[in-house]
Amino acid sequence: MDSRKSIEDQFSKLHPSLPVSTRIGIVGGGPSGLSAAYALAKLGYSNVTVLEKYQTVGGMCESAEIEGNIYDLGGQVLAANSAPVIFHWAKKLGKYKDIKVADDYVSVISLTLELQDKAKDSGRIGVHAVSEIASDLTPEFLEARGFKSVPKSVACGYTASGYGFVQDMPYAYIHEFTRTSMAGKIRRFKGGYMNFWKKLSEMLPIEVRCNTEVLAVRRNSAGASVDVKNSNGEVEVIEFDEIIISGSFPFKNGKTYRAPPSSSAEPETGVMDMNELEKKLFSKVQTIDYYTTVLKIKGLEHIPVGFYYFEEFMDDPATIGHPVAMQRFYNNTDVFLFWSYGNSVDIKGPTVTELAINTAKNMGGEIEEVVLQRRFKYFPHISSQDMKEGFYEKVESELQGMRNTYYVGGLMAFELTERNASYAVALVCKHFANDSPSPTFPYVKRLFPLQSDWWGGNLKRLDEFPGVKFPDIASLDGYLKHWGTHEVIQNKTLYTWINEEGVVVSQRTYRELHANASCIAHNLLLNQKPLFKPGDRVLLVYIPGLDFVDTFFGCLRAKLLPVPVLPPDPLQRGGQALLED
Predict the structure, then answer these.
(1) Which residue spans traverse the membrane (predicted)?
(2) For the chain, which has fewer Cβ within 10 Å, the N-terminal or C-terminal residue?
């Protein structure tokens, strides 16, 4: 999507390219899955279901309450200027706060801007946009551009954030990290990042099914059948016309980054009925075995609130297992978070915990409690060679949409929440929408609000009339026909026109507007000069009064698109009419 335009503006010019009743399933309720759900709902799709394995949405943006404070165990911060999608939602859903970050990415700013301009010109989305121009390994890529080494701030920030060692990675991934991390103030969500995604899921007109484990996915030309185990432990089959797969679901039994060469992946479980292309592409993917360990430590009270790197464990992969970063969230507690790499074989949770404890002791701390530990299958990625051989081109041009299946998540977008959200929204707009002047299918544009829970307004209940049920109708004219003939509603006032003094000049009931619209539509369709066809645009000159409203609905009933215009102003030379957008 075009980051120079607001989210609302971009969606205002799009229409759904499939019937809005299309059954769309989304596997995974993390940032990618929920962002795709948001885009689908915004386009008007009304049958969207999110399947989430765990008890709440949010994916790796997990938050935990410890001794009365909220701690983000996974995703937690955003750079304000590089997160337009999420901050668009944040302004509507709740508050966030700024935190400071060292402005030490200066050495790569010009290179980052250069690559970003090329990415925008490519018209591609996600990592695909830079996969051809930045596929070399990072040291080689930077050396060719005059850098003697990888800037220390970039290397430390990248590795400490869980993306591996920079010498192993194609520069495309480092670019995605730097362009997101260096842009503006760093912000954290009050109440925890998980709570943000939970609020978003509750505000969307979709079905979210938590505690629902996907057991099998079978696809054919007509759609997908998904076997799930629901919250009651019962197995059921859900049918979808289209399915969106998020996160690491397709390669959850794949390769682990920096695992010993003799180790092999766990046997495939056959959860997805992959074809040969999917097997070939996903067999190249590695994920990082990444841990968050929470310790309560006495004796480190002098350490200020902040995020700290362990530089001695940043460069050498032989130190995997030792913590690469530590964070203190609050200065009135003894709770510290440690981040570490494992390898899924001989360096797992217990070893990671032991090494974190030893590191804390070496700092002068006394361990009071191991509070908890979380393990994440993090940052799916590929090698520099696979990127050079066109991995992302094949994913985007051959895989996306094949067998009614679409993939979103860190592999396609890079494992940052804003990158995931932006990619998911862009993919939905690319494959589930079009920007034609008139919609392919009748639908109602959704204007659902995302209300913040801290809004202090008083809600007033609006009671419904007895015997009245609100229907689900696909068009504005359909609603007028329904209410204009409803025995309870038809004689109630729909529009009132008042003059400049506030005096009522005229009114229309539902029945009157329905009758007037039918009469005008009949006359328009009988007209031979010109002969109107469904979808034609009709200039509708605005004249104050309810006759204008009658004509507007008459055009809709005749399946014409009314385009309101203001009449020429006689006081203005030239008298140009103004089209209302």
Answers:
(1) none
(2) C
Say if 218 falls within a structural domain: yes
Residues 254 and 303 in one domain: no
Q: What are the E-state strand segments in 163-270?
A: 186-189, 207-209, 213-220, 223-229, 235-240, 242-246, 255-256
Tell me: do 398 and 338 sit in the same domain. Answer: no
- For 304-358, what is the HEC assignment? CCEEEECHHHCCCHHHECEEEEEEECCCCCCEEEEEEECCCCCCCHHHHHHHHHH
Q: Is 289 helix (H, G, I), strand (E, B) or coil?
A: strand
What is the structure's pLDDT at 451? Answer: 46
pTM of the model: 0.76
- Facing residues of 266 across strands? none
229 and 201, same domain (yes or no): yes
Tokens of 306: 């902040």
Q: Distance between CA atoms of 156 and 159, rounded to whole angstroms?
A: 5
Q: How far apart are CA 145 and CA 457, in angstroms?
A: 56
22 CB-near residues (< 8 Å, 6+ apart) = 45, 47, 241, 242
3-class DSSP state of 528: strand
CATH of the domain at 226: 3.50.50.60
Q: What is the pLDDT of residue 131?
A: 98
What are the C-alpha distances in Å from 471 to residues 138, 474, 475, 512? 57, 10, 11, 20
Q: What residue ranges of the chain have pLDDT lower than 70?
A: 1-6, 76-106, 181-188, 262-270, 444-467, 567-581
SS (H, E, C) 110-179: HHHHHHHHHHHHHCCCHHHHCCCCCCCEHHHHHHCCCCCCCCHHHHHHHHHCCCCCHHHCEHHHHHHHHH
Contact 38, 446 (CB under 8 A): no
**If we measure between CA atoms, which residue out of 365, 310, 358, 300 comes closest to residue 333?**
300
From CA 263, how far away is CA 344, in angstroms rounded? Answer: 9
Dihedral-angle region of residue 388 (phi above 0 means left; psi in -120 to 50 means alpha; beta otherwise): alpha
pLDDT of residue 250: 82
CA atoms of 503 and 497, how far apart (whole Å):
8
pLDDT of residue 449: 54
> Would you say residue 80 lies in a domain?
no
426: nearest Cα among 94, 101, 40, 29: 40
Count of CB atoms situated within 10 Å of the CB of 183 = 18
Q: Which of 532, 519, 581, 521 lies closest to 555, judged by CA? A: 521
What is the pLDDT at residue 21? 94
Domain count across the chain: 4
Residue 1 lies in a domain: no
Distance CA 325, CA 481 (A): 63
Q: What is the CATH number of the domain that holds 517?
A: 3.40.50.980
